[in-house]
Amino acid sequence: MMSQEVITLLMSRSHRFSWQPGDGARHATADERPHRGRPVGTRISTLCGTQVLSDESVEAWLWVTCPRCNIEAHKLAGIPMPGAADELH
C-alpha cells in the first residue's frame, strides 16, 4: 500500500514527468503534456530512451508499465523502488 506522502506527490505533478501509454506499454515522459492530453498518435520521447506513439484508449492505460521508465520515474520522483530499501543497508 502506498503512503499518503507518495500519493500526494504523484497527484501533485510536482515531478518532471507524466505517464503515457504508447506502443503496447505505459511509458514515462518528460515531454510537455497538454492540459487536455496528447492527441492519439503523437510521437513522444520516453524516460527509457525510446520514442513511442501515444494512445489514449481505456485499454491502453491498463497496459504493462515499461520497467525502464518505471525505474527512471522513481529516480526523478525521489521515491525508492519497492524492495530497494533492502539494498541500501
From TrEMBL:
InterPro entries: Zf-HC3 (IPR031795). Gene3D superfamilies: Malonyl-[acyl-carrier protein] O-methyltransferase, zinc-finger motif. Residues 24-34 have a biased composition (Basic and acidic residues). The keyword Zinc-finger applies. Residues 19-42 are annotated as: Disordered. The keyword Metal-binding applies. Pfam families: zf-HC3. Keywords: Metal-binding, Zinc, Zinc-finger. One of its GO terms (molecular function) is zinc ion binding. This is Zinc-finger. It comes from Saccharopolyspora shandongensis.
